[in-house]
Design brief:
alpha+beta, seven-stranded antiparallel beta sheet, two-stranded antiparallel sheet, 4 helices, 9 strands, 34% strand, globular
């Protein structure tokens, strides 16, 4: 009931513990439950996880970014080409982050991290989890027709 009792838009710190030891600290953003959640889950529509992955957002405090799945709403809002079939879209950049200093802005699509393809939020999370303990991560992203690669420090 903790999530159900939390106001949408609120950021909540979460620690994920895997295999009895590996700890990953995340901040999640609580979103309002879609009105059609039940029908999407039953029909299997959506992005491959029973329809429950639409609109998922991930806050990466170590990169200073908030990213979301690429769906029709984010495509329209950020003018993302239909040719972009994988990745996650940056929806927020912490103003005091290195990402902001290097010019990453909302609408940028992250295609890979540490030379591993970012297909969706799940792969973004996995790669970030695997990056725990590293000082930097290589980010390959696309802004419109331009592809850029850079190194970003991890906090």
């Amino acid at each position: 009931y903790m999530v159900a009792d939390t106001i949408p838009g609120r950021q909540i710190p979460v620690t994920v513990i895997r295999d009895g030891g590996a700890r990953v600290d995340l901040t999640i953003v609580i979103e309002a439950q879609p009105e059609d959640l039940y029908t999407r889950a039953r029909s299997g529509s959506g992005s491959g996880s029973g329809g429950l992955d639409d609109g998922v957002t991930e806050v990466s405090s170590s990169l200073g970014l908030t990213v979301s799945t690429i769906d029709e709403a984010t495509r329209k809002k950020y003018s993302i080409s239909e040719q972009v079939t994988a990745g996650v879209v940056v929806t927020k950049v912490d103003t005091d982050s290195e990402a902001a200093e290097k010019g990453i802005t909302p609408g940028v699509v992250i295609l890979s991290l540490d030379r591993q393809p970012v297909k969706d939020i799940a792969s973004f999370r996995r790669i970030m989890k695997d990056s725990v303990g590293k000082d930097r991560v290589r980010v390959f992203f696309q802004r419109g027709e331009v592809s850029i690669q850079m190194m970003l420090d991890l906090k």
